[in-house]
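Attaching the record inline, Q. Sequence:
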Amino acid sequence: MRAGVRRLRTLQQRHRESLRLLVHELDDRYDLVPALIAASAGAGVERERIRPVVGARSLAIGVRDQRLGLAERAGAENALSATLHELIGGLDGVSHWPFIRVARELQLREQRLAGAVRVYNDLGRTLNTAIGRFPTSLFAKLAAIGPVALFEAPAPMAAPATGSEGAPVTGTPVRSQAPAPSGTAAA
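Structure, as predicted:
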């Protein structure tokens, strides 16, 4: 019994740590967006292409600050990923180094963010599965460990909206969606 409770508590602690990593990656991405916007002026990007990114970042930060659920936050983060993808992916001919540097850093951040989401959700599924099975369900009740929410946007009722190149905007966890700027290969 002690081993079962210890295993559940270890999973729960790992899950909490993965949430801290995920939040850190999201905050780092928020910090990079203003640099991308500033660099886009030198790259000759029209304001109409920048507005959706600014709006999506504001929405994501607003959802974070309101402490809404993980599903709502995942939806807002997916919207930010999609707008970043559209901005960076549509500027293949840009040769402005400050813009390219920030775009590459954002792409790396998107990849790290996708990995953090994957780890968080995998640990959450493992914990939820363990809690749902006998006899660990009894240990979970004794240790007051309940199921955890995953970082996934709810699936839409109609067909999912797609961004450019068919990347899903909602209904999936946050993923790296930004292609590499001109002359680079995405990992």
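Helices lie at 2-43, 47-65, 70-89, 97-132, 136-143. Residues 2-166 form a domain with the de novo design (two linked rop proteins) fold (CATH 1.20.1440.20).

More tomorrow.
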